[in-house]
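Lab notes, practical 5.
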Amino acid sequence: MIAKHIRLTISSLALIAMVAPALTVKAQQPYSVLTKWTIGGEGGWDYLAADTTAHRLYITHATRLEVLDTNSGKPVGSITGFKGLHGVAFDDTGKFGYVTDGGANQVVVFDRSTLAKVASIPTGANPDGMVFEPATKTLWAFNGRSKDATVIDAANHTVVATVPLPGRPEFPAVDGSGTLFVNIEDKNEVVRIDAAAKKPTAAWPLAGCDSPSGLAIDTVGHRLFSVCDGKKMVITDATSGKSLATPTIGDGPDATGYDPAHKLVFSSNGDGTLTIIDAGKPTYPVLSTVTTERGARTMAFDASNGRVYLVTAAFGPRPAATPENPHPRPAALPGSFSVIVVGRK
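Output from the prediction step:
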């Protein structure tokens, strides 16, 4: 029996010795576009979110919430009847999901297993980014026009507070221990919020940042990653508010994500690039820049498979500028809405 045990141990060690180098090689492979899934339909889009446990990707697409399988790209279903969707969040029970309907000034609760609508909760004006705060079991919807946050009790789906903010909030992040952070777009700063007290406790300027949008957090290293216009990411100490670095990213970003396993930060940029920054090095160098497609400026990082999902569409010609609209956007071509999947082969 002892000899058999020794043989099994040696065999196990040999297997580990063979597998470990293969895993290391895969982790060192460059990122590239792996595939593209066409969804179709019409209208614009905003944020998307990955449910890593159920392997589903939720995408806000104008008046529809599209749901795909993250492995195959096949449609799981959709939820319709909205006026203008923005953000998606999930509770920590695996039961409910939430989406901000900015056009209707409300958060809609849905059942993640059936995709049925469960409740509609009124918010401030134009709810946009949203996040579930696990320590207090609350949902925070950040309202762009009314410059505040609607706080919702996740247990009974009722509003428990409205928290004023110093400017127009964009995307939020949580540290998992009762603290929230949110970028303030029109003030070029990030605000820290005590979830239990339901009030801001600090406002830190983002030096070198213009119009911060996407925000990600490293909860272990206590770092915030804000993407900004002007091709900059501002990295902030989440404890002191000190600026740590301002690496260069692509143009027109709107979202970011953090990979804690490999200490990488991603910035999805409207110019058709995905910037990948090595946050494991003190100089925060750009590890690589992946060519995606124009307009792919929002993203979701899936920690279960290490992939980044981005959405965009093909565009028609840009309309002529007018005094009322000096910077018109080209319209997305019907049927061209799609998901770009980036990862390591």
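Observations recorded by the TA: The two ends are 42 Å apart (CA to CA). The first strand starts at residue 31 and ends at 38.
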